[in-house]
Amino acid sequence: MQFNFLGVTKSAATVTAFTVALASPVFVYAQAEPAGQQQQPAQASGQQTGSQPHWKDRAEYDLYNSIAHEKDLKKRLDLLDQWEQKYPTTEFEKLRTQAYLGTLGPLSQQDSSTRQKTIDACKKALTADPKDFTALYWLAINAPEVGGANPTPAQIADAETAGNGLLQAQKPATTTEEAWEKAKSSVDALAHAALGWAASAKKDYPTAQKEYEAYLKVNPNNSNISYQLGQTILAEKNPALYPVALWSFARAGAYDGPGSLPADNRARVQEYFKKIYDQYHGSDEGADQLLAQAKSAPLPPDGFKIVSATEKANEAAAALQQRLQADPALSLWYSLQQSLVGDQGDSFFTANVKDAEIPGGANGVKAFSGTVISLDPPDKPTKIVLGVLDPTKPDATLVFSDPIPATAVKVGDKIDFGGVGDSFTKDPYMLTLKDPELPGVKLVKQRPRAAHKRVKTR
Q: Are the beta carbons of 277 and 304 closer than 8 angstroms?
């Protein structure tokens, strides 16, 4: 079941704790001003590549100076486009590329129509310098956002390039050691988010799981990544991992601190979690406890396990098989039940059980044993309801022609019994016997029983 309502890297980008300096261009101001009296293009300090670059003319410098002082991102982008259109080639190409990145990157998070242009600018920068941190950073955010649920191979490759590049990234020159130390964990988280998205897009779910778990170890408070991890594990279709998926959904639905989902989305995730928890576990027992436990941690502890409904059924079946092998009377009762609830149950009852002595010595069994669940009426009972397979679940009813002493049998007693087949229901299963006998129980009187046929089992 899919339930995506937030993009992975959009959330990752919001959490990333970078200072503006990590992703902003370095503009050159007065140092690049033309030497007007010489009427020659000025030299820009810090841009040396063997010889200093020059502006082509005063107009190029003035245009650049306008860009450097423009605070509005959209207006700055328009000015950058003018610079590129009027001056397709410039000795300040590297500076222009960084200015584009520093403008388009933040703008792409405000205006989705600029995301593809941001990707193009990132790829252009990486062609010149594969380790360009700013380009890797914005590519890691925008490639998954543009790729969405049905990305192209190129978009997946872009996310992988960005993710792998960020994991190996070195401190940008304009960033202090202190700032980089604080930001590095967020850089790694963003890288893992991009790689997780790429792996998921390729349906490489084990790798996606690994990346999302790595993300949460670095940034434990991103509930959207927790949710994506749960969906990724379900997509793997490995039941052994489903407890981790349930933990992840519980985390996304319960955690309400920084980085959590909006309240209405948390409520929807909790509803979804409880639905699939019940499907997996077979009941809602333990669901609330898991929500409380997962609220405090993004990943389950080592050895975490939730017993599945299938495991419980297998354990119950194995336990029942042991009981049947050790108790011939119970084995006969179970065999009768399975025959009666089957597709041919009605015909089997008519041919083999109706008006037959039960157990009547079939398979060497002279009496069944069950636990008294109810007496009706309590003071002078003419009906006893028993639990044979399970002492808490009724599956046998004994009907007497005359009341039995109220003191002869009480609720909770385990008694031996037999009788004559009278009727049955399949759901809920119940076999009713008339003219019952209770070996070891003293009744007021016991009517002589007419001869009956013997029960037959398959």
A: no
Which residues fall within 8 angstroms of residue 351, CB to CB, at 6 or more apart? 456
Report, in this order, helix, strand and coil percent for the chain, each rounded to 5. Answer: 55, 10, 35
- Residue 180: enclosing H or E segment and its boundaries? helix 177-201
User: Any idea what the Cα angle at residue 144 is, between residues 117 and 75, rounded to 5°?
Assistant: 30
Q: Residue ranges of the domains in the chain?
A: 8-202, 327-454
Give pLDDT tens digits for 405-421.
888 899 999 999 999 99
Number of C-beta neighbours around residue 133 at 10 A: 23
- Asked if residue 230 has pLDDT above 90, the reply is yes
End-to-end Cα separation, the chain, in angstroms: 43
Of 175-189, 295-309, 387-401, the range with the lowest mean pLDDT is: 175-189
Cβ-based neighbours of 178, under 8 Å, separated by 6 or more: none
Residue entry with tokens 């009187």: 445
Kindly tell me the sign of the dihedral angle through the C-alpha atoms of 291, 294, 298, 300. Answer: negative
Phi, psi of 339, rounded to the nearest 5 degrees: -70, -40
Determine whether 29 is exposed, middle or buried from the number of CB atoms within 10 Å of its CB (0-12, 13-18, 19+): exposed
- For 327-454, CATH gives 2.40.50
- CA-wise closest residue to 98 among 21, 159, 42: 21
